[in-house]
Amino acid sequence: MILKVYLIILILLLCCMRTTFADNPVVKINPDYTDVVIPANIAPLNFVIQEPGDKYIVTISATRGKSIEIKSKNPQIDIPFKQWKNLLKENKGQNLIISISILRADQKIDFKPINNKIAQEEIDSYLAYRLINPAYLLWNEMGIYQRNLENFDEEPILHNRAIDDKCMNCHHFHNNDPKTMMIHLRAGATSGTLIVQDNEATKVNTATDFNKAGAYPAWHPNGNIIAYSVNKLEMFFHAQNEPRDVLDRGSDLILYNIATNTVTTSPLIATPEYMESFPNWSADGKYLYFSRTQEFGQFLDGDDFRYQDILYDLMRIEYDAERNSWGDVVTVIASKDVGKSITFPRISPDGRYLLCCMADDGHFPIYKPSSDLYLLDLETGDYRALEINSEYGDTFHSWSSNSRWFVFSSKRIDGLYVRPFFAYIDLDGKVYKPFVLPQKDPEFYITFLKSYNVPEMIKGKVTINSHYLLNVAYNNEKKLNANLDRNIKPTEKQDGDDAMYQLAPN
Amino acid sequence: MRREIKMANDKGNRNYFNHISTLVFFILIFLYITLSVNPALIYQSQNSLFYFDSTFFKQFTLYPGGLSEYISSFFEQFYIHSWMGGLILTLFLFLIAQLIKRLFIGLNEKISMILFLPPVLSLVYLHSNYDYHLTYTIVICINLAAFSFFKLFNRYYFPLKLFVLLILLPLLYYLTATAFFLFVLLVVLSQFFQKEQNWIEKIVTILFSILLSIAIPILAQRSLFLMPKGSAFIYLLPFSLELVNNTALILFYVYIILVPLYFYIKPFFKILNRENSDKIHSEKKEKRTRLYAAIALLIMTAIVFLNSINSDVKFFLTVDRLSMMAQWDQVIDQMKKRQKFNNRILAIHLNRALYHTNQLCDSIFSFPQLFKEEGLIKTGNDAFDVPIINSDLFFDMGFINGAEQWAYEALSINKETPRILKRLTLVHIAKGEFKVAQKYLELLSKTIFYKKWANRYSALLNDEHTIFLDKELAHIPLTQPQTNFLSRPGFPKADLIELIEKSQVNKMAFEYLICYDLLSCNLTHFMNRLEYMKKLHYPEVPRHFAEVIMLIMTSNPDEKYNIQAVKFQKYIVGRFREFMKILGNYNNDKNAARHELSEKHGDTFWFYFLYNNPREQ
What we know:
Radius of gyration of chain A: 25 Å
Distance between the termini of chain B: 93 Å
Largest interface: A-B, 47 and 47 residues
Oligomer: heterodimer
Structural class of chain A: mainly beta
C-alpha cells in the first residue's frame, strides 16, 4: 500500500516536472545548436548562452555514459574535449540533451532542455575550403585550408602569401580522397592546375587551342578524367540589395584525361548555341550532369541586358569513359518548369540524390539571396526545396563519402559572410536542421571577416607537404601543357585565365 | 685635493650637461613630431586597427615579423591623437638612443651624445614619411636589445655563447624577420674586433652566426612558413622598403654597424676617450668637443627638421583627414591656400566640400578644375587608389550599393581599418542589414578609440525607428534609389542619371550630373535637366546655372526655352556682357584675352568653357 502511494506521488511529481519543462523558457544559444543532428565524431559544439546571469550551469547528457557538467561564471561554454568525445562515441543514434540553468540574483532559472540527436553515421573527418574576403572586384589575401572536424585544428594547404598573393581556387577531390586532389592557381609564375594523385603533384596547363584553362571541375569516379567548364566570367553590379552579380559570356565543357594529358570534348557539351557549366559525374561515372542555358547574345537587346532571363537548365549526357563516346543530351529539370536557374549539381556518392542550387536567375548563386538547395531523387525523379533553406543564399555543397552528410555554404548568420553548415540526410531523404562548423571560440564567427568558399568534405587529412606543392607550382620546366584531342577542331586563340576578380593593388 | 674636487665638479657638470642636452633634444623631437609631422596624419595614412582578439592576434603569428607588426599596430592606434603619437615615437626613439648607447658601453663610460643621437635623427627623418611604419623601429629595438643581452655572455664559457646564439637567432627571425641581420652583423663585428677572445673561438662564433642566419630563413621558407619566394631574405629588411628616400635608413645602419669598429680603431676616437688623455689638455679638448658636438647635433637636427617632411603628402593627408571628418569649410580653406594642385583626389575632396557647403554650382569654377569631370568622381579601375573616398562619396549621394562595393574594395586593398569598418557599418545599417552592421560594430567596440562610436550605433540598431534621424543616415531615405538598376563602373554619368531618376530627391546626384556636363563642356541636355530643379527648391538659381543659360540663350537666340521658372540675378547679365566685351576688345582672340578674362571672369563657367571646350579649341 505504502509502495503504491509512493508510486502515485512519484508519478505526480514526474508529471509536474514535465509540466515545468514545458513551461520553462527557451534558452538562446549562439551558434544555434538546438534540435540538430550531429555526427559522433564532431568536435565539441562550444556555445554562448545569450541570457544574462551570474552563473551558468550546463549539463550534457545522453542515455549511456557519464554526463558532462560545466559550471561557469562566463556565458561562453567550453565543453571538455575528452568527455564530449566519450559521450558521443557511446551514444550513436541516441539523443543528446543539453540542460541549461542560470543563477541570476540568487534565483535559479531552468531552461527547456535542448534536444539534439547523435547520428549513427560519422562524418568525413576533414573539411577543405578557401578563406577569402567578401570579394567584389578585388581580392587580397586568401588560402585553401583544411579543418579537422573532430577537433579544432585548422591549417593551410596553400596560402597565396606564398605565391605573390595570386588567386587560388577550384580545389577539388576525387571521391573525398585527401591524397587525390586538384587546385587551380591563377596568373603569375605559379599559374596552372596542380593535380595531386597519391600525394604526387604535377602542374598542368589545361588550356589548349580549343579552350582556356578549366574552371569548375568534376573528377570522374575512375580517377583518370576531370571534367571542367571553361567560362568567360564577368562581374556586374546592382543598385539595390546584393550589389554583386556574375555573368558568363560563353562557356563549354571539356574533359581532361590525366593519363594521356589530353583535352577532349564533344559538340554536345561544347556548342556555341549554349553555355554549359558546372559539370558533375554520376556516382557510376556513366552520366555527366551539368547546367546549360542559351548563348549570351540571346540576353542582349542592344544596350539592354536581360539578366533576369538567364536561367540554366539541369542537363545530363551519357558518357562511356572506356570508349570516350557520348550519348544524347537530356534535360533533367527544365528551368521553365521551376522558374529558376539551376546550378551546381552534386551527386551523392551512393548515387541516390542530386543536390543543386536554384535561384531566381543567373549563374552565380553565392551572390543570390534567392538561392536555395534542392534535392533531386535520382531514383524517382522527384525534387524538392530543402526545408533547411534560409532567407539568405544557401549554396555550394559537397557530400560526405558515406552520403549521409552534406556541407553547404550559407549566409544565414549575417547575410553576407559565408559559413559552412552540415546537415544530416537519412535513408529516406529527410534532411535535418543543419549546424555551423564548430569553433573553439563560440563567438569566432562574430568577428571573423573571411568567407568559407567551396567547402569540400574529405575522408582524412591532406598530408601532401605545402612546400612541396609550392615547389611544383613554381617549377615551370616540368609543367605539362595539355594536348588537344586530334578530333577536336581548334578555335580562335584563347587568352588564358579569366579575371573576374583582380588582385588588390598594394 | 682641490683639483680632485674640481674634477668631480667637472664630471658632475658634464653629466648635468649631457642629461640636460639629451632632455632638450628629446623635447625638441617630441615637439617636432607632434606639431610638425603630426602623427594624426600618419594615422590618416596608415589607419591601423588594433583590438584584443585571438583571431586578430593569430594572423600575426603565421609569418616571421608578424609579432613586431602586432606590437606596432598596438602603438600606432594611439597616433589618432597627435600628442600621444608624438609621445610614443619619442619614447621609442629614446629607447633606441639608450640601446645604441649600450653598444658603446665597454668602450668608454662617458659617452658624448654626438655618438648616439645621430641615428635617432635618421629615424626621425624616416618617421616623417607618413607611410613609414613603427614596425621598422620596433624590429631595430628588438635586435639592439638582443645584442645587449648577448653581450652579457661574451666572457662566459664559449659553448654557452653558441647556445645563446642558437636560441636567439631563430627567435629573432620569428620576431623581426630579416631585420635579425642587424643582430648578426653586430655579433660578427663585435666578435671580430674583440681582443679577449682567442681566434679559433672568434672564427667559430662568426661562422656559426653567419651560417645560422642563412640557414634559418631557408628553413623557414622551405618547411615552416608559407612565404613568398625570396621574401625569406627581405621581409622587414629595411633596405627593401619602397620608400622615397632610403638614405636616412642606410645611414642609420651604417652608423650602427660602424660602432663596433671603435673597438679596433680606438685611437681614432681618442678625442672622445677622456680618461686616457692628458687630463689638463683633455679638459680643454673635451669642452671644445662638447661644443662641437652640440653644434653638429644642432645642425643635423635643423637639417632633419627642415627637410624631412614631404609637404605635398602632408597637405594631401590634411585635406583627406578634414574631408573624412566632414569639416568642409576647412577643406575649402586649405584648398584656397593652395590654388595650384595637381592631384585628382584633392579635386574630388574640394568638389565634395563645395557640395556640402552649398557652393558647388556657385563656385566650382572659382577653383582650377584641371581634372575636368574626372575631378568629381572615380568609378572605374582608376578608383582603386581611393576606394574609401569613392565609398564616402557614394554614401553621401545615397548610392548605398556603390558605397558598399567601394568599401569592400577598400577592405581588400587596405585590410581592416577603422575608417573602412565605420563606413561598412553605416552602409549595412542604411540597407537594413543589421546583422552585418552588428558584426563590424562588435569589432570596433573592441578597439580603444572607436568603442564609443560603436556603442552609439549599436544602441541605434535597437531602435529602428530612429535610425534615419542620425545625421550620418538622415539623407538616405530620400536619396537612395527606389528601384534597381545596373551600375556601370567606369561610367559615373550613367549612374548619376539613374540615381536622379530612381530616387525621390537626390540633390547631390543632380548637382554632380550638371557639373559633370559643365566640366566636360557638354551642354546638350542642360536645359532639359533644369526641370529637376523644381524638386530642389533652390532659393535662387545657382550662379553657374545662370551663366550656362546666358550662354545657351545667346548662342541659340532662335530657340525657345521655357525658362519662366528660372530667374536669376541681373548682375549675371552684366557680367556676361562685360565678358563678351573684353573678348571683343581682343577681336575674339581668346589667347590674347586670356589674362584679362582670367582676372575679371576666371571664376565663371564662360571662362572655363572658352578655354576647355574641345570644339572651341
